[in-house]
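Tutorial sheet, problem 5. The two components below are modelled jointly, 648 residues in total.
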Amino acid sequence: MNASTSLPLKGAPVKAPGLNRARLLRSALPGGSLTVLLITIFIMQPRAMSYMGMNLMLNLAVPIALATIAQMLIITVNDLDLSMGSFISFVACVAATLLNQHPLLGCLVLLGCIAVYALLGALIHLRNLPSIVVTLGMSFIWMGGAVLLLPAPGGSAPQWLQSLVRIKTPFLPFAIIVCVVLAIAVHVFLMRSTLGVVLRGAGGNPLAIAKAGWSLLRIKVTMYALAGTFGVFSGLFLVGLTTSADASIALRYTLLSIAGVILGGGEFVGGRVSPTGAVLGALTLVLAGSLLSFMRVSPDWQIGAQGAILILVLALRTSVNRLEARPT
Amino acid sequence: MKPVPFLTVVMGKPWLWSFLAALLIWIATVAFNGGQGAGSLLSGALSFSAFFVIVGIGQMFVITTGPGNIDLSIPANIALSGAIGMKLMDSQAGLIWLGVLGVMGAGVLIGCANYALIRLLRIPPIIATLSASFLLQSMAIAYGRSVRIQPPDIFYQFCTGHILGVPYLAISVVLLAVVMGYVLTRSVYGRWTIAIGQNARAAELAGGRVNLIRFATYVLSALFASVCGLLLAGFSGGASLSMGEEYLLASIAVVVIGGSSVAGGFSNVPGIWGAALFLYLLVSMLNTFGTSAGVRLILTGLIIIAVITAVSGRKSARPA
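Model answer (structure tokens):
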């Protein structure tokens, strides 16, 4: 998307206004769906439109947004991480036990997690393995580690972590600030920097990137390590909010993070992703849950509603794409 | 590198490995127990593996149709189908036919829904089946909320009974596997499925009705998952919501360990049985060794990764 706007079409007049409109519509879709959702919530429950209300609604969105960014980095290089949820659970368990009792050891373990992710990237690239199967296997390993650390729910998050995620910022709730900073930072890095272009290129046209002299191995390792880092952040933030952990605390994050990336306009292949979209997508999924509880819909249907929203947004995107494909 | 003739035979039949591994683990477990319970271990393995095999076959057909094709709705499907089956049967032997029909109908509908999403919304199968599974999961929660309904006695006995130590279920699933193996390698449908997996464009140009075949494949997978859900509910004396959870990984793992290519186009049915036995025996071996749940999970994960790494090395050695 970005590449096509920055490349000036040589002398050719803008030939299809429909094309630009479609592109605009498509990039407005994640923000649009979030806005519609927010407005509905505010109409149904005006009290949600306050500092406290927003904070309550969006607090748990931050770890999901971080997980979504991590997943997005993996999707950028045409892979998929099915172990994200269990990895974040493991990180939460480490934070609630080791990091609290032996801070140094805890930090080392968390750094080790990132190293494992980097190794995974190398393994998947070198042996040309299907990431789905490898990460599915990894999900067992993380789960096992989490169960070993915390056989029963419990532990407690370090005090500094708890106070860090509960910072009261003026005007805007901390959760919103974190989300905005996260979106902008990753956007600048991935969409605007030279390195970001190369990283995305590895998903779009690996051969071209390799021919241009970049090491695909190093790119994959970088992306996986970054994803691991964001996963660690997500787990830390989560356990700071919940103060205690259990081995299955974040299992649903795997599916939520994939859904968030797709909602935000990311595509599975070709390195087409959108960091801002991913954060918006994660927020949409979280707010959909709040909306349903305001509407007094039974929690049974929460997951179903997330699925329905996913389908709805994808249907909208398909129709936008059709608009683009239509010759004008 | 010139492999000896024996090795060439083994290399040509990747599914042999899974049986070999299963056998080794069985021997190790029996040896650890001093020869005790060898038969009952095998009997249990056959029962539990049967469920893996049913969903595994469905998943294998989906995976065969090429990269990116995968059915993630299997766990939710199993939970929902189990609930539907138990409700329709209502613990009465006279209503078993209704339960079976209802569940199969549900399976076909779920498969149609999955493919409709893939085709109409033009979204990758992973996302399509993922969003479908969100919906199914909610339905299973809402529908299966009521009290646990026991399966009818006869049905329960079919699911748990065995003759000469071989479970009825295992016999039926072996027959099913034979039929599906025939369908995959000999029938027109199976041949096209493999052709699409190897090169969808070429298959289309050769006159294959790619969309129809893929449609049939997703319906098949959903149907098998539904049947598995019904049998599982019968086996465990009632449906439960979490009963399908482990089947997402299991269904993919048995396909991969069984020697089918994850990239599609090269599949085999016998390997699924070997892999299912291997997975079950592995867990029970770790159980007898007295390892904790955490260690068991870690070892299972490590073995899956080791197998996929080893398998891919072999694949690249082949001209295919």
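Marking note: Residues 1-15 of chain A have pLDDT under 50 and may be disordered. Full credit if you identified this.
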